[in-house]
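seq as requested:
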Amino acid sequence: MIQHQFCTDILNRIDNLLAEGKEITIAIDGNSGSGKSTLAHDLSKIYDCNVFHMDDFFLRPEQKTVKRIQEVGGNVDYERFKHEVLDKLKKNQEFKYQIYDCSQGRLTDYIKVSPKGLNIVEGVYSMHPTLRHYYDLKIFLCIDAETQSQRILERSGKYMLQRFLNEWIPLENEYFSKIRISEICDLVITCS
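C-alpha cells:
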C-alpha cells in the first residue's frame, strides 16, 4: 500500500500521536511530483481521516497582485485555508469549505467536513509560517529534478511540464529554501 521510504516511521508516529487521544493534524509538504497526494491517499486507506489539498487554496485571479506574487509562499491563499479549515478543525464540529478550481479560475464546490481523529493537509505551502504551528507532525517529501520532471511529464504532459519548470517549481524552491521548510519538519523523506 504505502510505497514511501520510512513508511514504518510515519505510521508509528501517527499511531503514537493518536494514542494520546486527541485530534491531530499532520502536514505533508514537498516538491511537485514527490508523492504528497499519493502518501495522503495511502494514509486515508489506513486511517479514518480527513484529507485537505492545498491545491484547492491557490490564489484567485483577483488576489494575484504583484506584491502578493513576490511574497515567498504568497501564491496560496493561506489566510482562507487558516480561516476555513485549520481554525474550524480546532472546534471539533462539522463545517464546510469551498475549493478553488484552477481550470475555471474561481471558487466552485463546497466540501463538508466531519470531525475525525486524524486530519491530513497535503501540498506545497502547507507549512507556510502562518500555518505550521497547527500541525502535530510535519513531513517533507523531496525528489531529484530529473525524476520530478519525468513524473510531471507523465502526469500532466509536455505543456504543463514547461509551466511547472518555468513558473511553479522556481516559486516552490524559493519557498523551501528561504523559509527553510525541510529544517522545521519532523521527517524528511527523499523519494525515488
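Residues 1-5 have pLDDT under 50 and may be disordered.
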